[in-house]
Hints:
Mean pLDDT: 96
Number of helices: 12
Number of domains: 1
Strand content: 15-25%
CATH topology: Rossmann fold
CATH architecture: 3-Layer(aba) Sandwich
Order of helices and strands: EEEHEHEHEHHHHHHEHEHH
CATH class: Alpha Beta
Distance between the termini: 28 Å
Amino acid sequence: MALDTDWxxxxxxxxxxxxxxxxxxxxxxxxxxxxxxxxPFSSYVWRAVARSLTRHHQVFVWDMPGYGxxxxxxxxxxxxxxxxxVFTELLSHWGLEEPLVVAHDFGGAxxxxxxxxxxxxxxxxxxxxxxxxxPWGSPSFRLLGEHSEVFERLPPALHAALVRxxxxxxxxxxxxxxxxxxxxEPWLDGPGQAAFYRQIAxxxxxxxxxxxxxxxxxxxxxLVCWGVDDTWIPVAKGRELVALVPGARFExxxxxxxxxxxxxxxxxxxxxxxxxxxxx
Length: 280
């Protein structure tokens, strides 16, 4: 996987949940694609896919409030409810009425909430190992959320070790050390350490419970990609989700864990390009 050390977001929108860093790649006028990352990640996980998609699309990437290079602040609302609203604000700011949308992990829930609750319109939606169906949240995830104030006070070295182990477990074959360094970096300073536990503490299943019963209302083309070796959310959840969304297509990706973008970027990019070209 390319490290892409020059991956930087150069633009800022002040949203209802703080400053959001974003950027646009590709030729203006090409069909727009928006990429949403999950937790505890950032737009950096989309770098290879984003570069590949620019051949035929204008690609929009962003770091959610509380993530990556976007604002991290005490008392900040970084819940799924807030992220859904912020995504709707971004679409309006960008002037995108019916973009193609690709969303990973929590970004899947964000895109689904924006579509079903806030009226965001998409031409098509590709979901990659999304958080979408109850129950979700591993025992470790729940432990961190329930005791976030305690973990916030961990010595920096212990916190760094915890975050590296947690993020690394999202990959099946294992992450390149430099990629792992880049993924954990935003969480390691003082504001980052607090933000890491804040986003877990605010992760509430009710935000997917609110929309799970409405997946049958989705009337746009949907592709669900899933890493077969995902230990964070079992591949069976992907098949369950596809059964709930009319006409949805399932694309299992062998050899990939939860971070499909890192584990099998070529296979994922190929599946996404084929799906997106069908919508042109």
